[in-house]
Amino acid sequence: MRQDHGKHDWACWKSEVITKWANNSWRFKMENAFEISISNSEKDKPLTLFFKQKDRLSALHPDMSDTMIDMKISRKCGGELEHSIKCRCVEPCSTEDYMNAMEDIITRTRIGKTWTKIPMESKMVPKISREDRIPEECVKPSLLEVKDTLLENLVSHQS
Known about the structure:
Elements: H1 2-5, H2 10-21, H3 24-36, H4 46-60, H5 66-77, H6 79-88, H7 95-108, H8 130-133, H9 143-158
Helix pairs in contact: 3-4, 5-6, 6-7
């Protein structure tokens, strides 16, 4: 490709790549990747998550401003995390301030994190059968056992 076009700056190469690869199926893949990806602050680091989403949006909409990209990413976070980021970043806010606020909120607070139940180890709680837990004298006898004892008592009294 370089032999065909000669030596050019990055802007020229970027426009060539966009004209060659930016077709409808590629746009659909990028939009899907943006919509499907859920911000999971426990698995992903905040900055990598932010940059992935920002790269996807800027590839889809190169004319979109940075503040619009930041707002779309914050809407994707949703809930309390979105609200706390918007409260920290007063308009107009630079992308750097936005990233710092997002990272600070995710790393220092529990906002945006889900509660997970920690399973107890089997070593901590020994499994005890019902017979071991309840003494024999406290266990209610079954109806058949009661019937058998009554019959035995009747037979022993009659003889």
